[in-house]
Amino acid sequence: MSEFEVTDRNRLMRYPKRASYDRAVIYPIIDEALVCHVSFALDGQPFIIPTIHARDGDRILLHGLKGGRLLEYIEAGNPVAIAVTLVDGIVFARTVFNHSMNYRSVVLFGRGKIIEEPAAKLAALQRLTERVIPGRWDEARAPNEKEIKATTIVGIDIEQATSKCRQGPPGDDGEDLEFPVWAGVLPTPIVPQAAETDPKQTAGFAVPDYVKNFNPAKR
Can you say whether residue 111 is alpha, beta or left, with left for phi > 0 and alpha for psi between -120 and 50 degrees? Predict the structure, then answer.
């Protein structure tokens, strides 16, 4: 892997020491996040859409129903910005000013195009499915022709990207270290709960191991 080019578009201005432009840092954050937010502008009005994503090398895959304005905007060759954020902990400082969060985030920029070739489209759908729950594609019913035609998939080439991360204890110093209040970090990992079986399911299927052992950090 290598670093993305740094320009005014992706250069981190606030706390630049927290920045990385290295794919080896950026891509694992993108892969762990369950949701991304895609921003775009139409006729001067900004919009931001949360959606599921998958990374395929140096591009981001998005999908949705045909006719969606975001996908039509991307299909027209317009630029987008995409953000993902992982919150790792709440930082409790001795001063209100120094309270913070431990996090890992990425903002990326790019342009995309529609994936139309049937085999490539099906492969993209498989990657999106397996990216969320590895192992599910081989067990669930595959998309039929009608469903595939009703779905639009775009691949966005990642032109530039930046990660910004904060880790560690509070940043208190000086006389604030003697202030009489607890200080530290409350970790906030995603912890899946027990799976809930669909009440419409009549057969007694066992919960698959890939569901019981789901861990977004180890997909």
Answer: beta
Rounded (5°) CA angle 116-117-122: 90
Instruction: Decide if 79 is inside a domain.
Output: yes
- Residue 173: which domain range? 16-218
- The dihedral region occupied by 72, where left means phi > 0, alpha psi between -120 and 50, and beta the remainder, is alpha
Tell me the pTM.
0.92
**Tokens 């790019």 map to which residue?**
110
Q: How many domains does the chain have?
A: 1
What does DSSP assign to residue 205?
Answer: P
Asked if residue 9 belongs to a domain, the reply is no
Is 126 inside any structural domain?
A: yes
pLDDT tens digits, residue range 173-193? 999 999 999 999 999 999 999
Report the CATH number at residue 153.
Answer: 2.30.110.10
Q: Could you give the C-alpha distances from 93 to 18, 88, 102, 177, 203, in angstroms and in order?
A: 19, 16, 12, 9, 52
**What span, in angstroms and rounded, lies between the C-alpha atoms of 106 and 98?**
23
Q: How far is CA 120 from CA 48, 144, 149, 181, 219, in A?
A: 27, 15, 13, 57, 22
Contact 20, 93 (CB under 8 A): no
Using alpha carbons only, what angle is made at residue 152 by residues 214 and 104, rounded to the nearest 5 degrees?
A: 40
Nearest-angstrom CA–CA distance, 1 and 17: 21
Whether the per-residue pLDDT at 67 is higher than 90: the answer is no
Is residue 4, in this structure, part of any structural domain at all?
A: no
